[in-house]
Input
Amino acid sequence: PATTTTSTNTEEIITSTAVAAASATEATSEEEMAVDDIISETPTNFPTYMPIEELPACPPVYDPTKSYVAGELTEVHEHTFQCSEEEGYEMYCNIAEWDDAMLLEHEDA
Output
């Protein structure tokens, strides 16, 4: 049969470690309570409001039945598009679906 030998020094070390851990926990709890008391007793200020620049209104949703001109803005799936004002591009403003064949007419379409 196996016998277990317990040293008095080992018991003292275990006991002193447990006491130290309990003291540390108590100290932490007291510090946390002190901080909580300070925070809960301190009045807060009103939130501050910082005005920002007025943002432009969103453009109207794209309407395939409408005829768009250069510079006009429209919205498609939360994205804003502007009809190009460069010469030769206005004809693409009224094309609802992209087709690679458009590149044959104009390589920069």
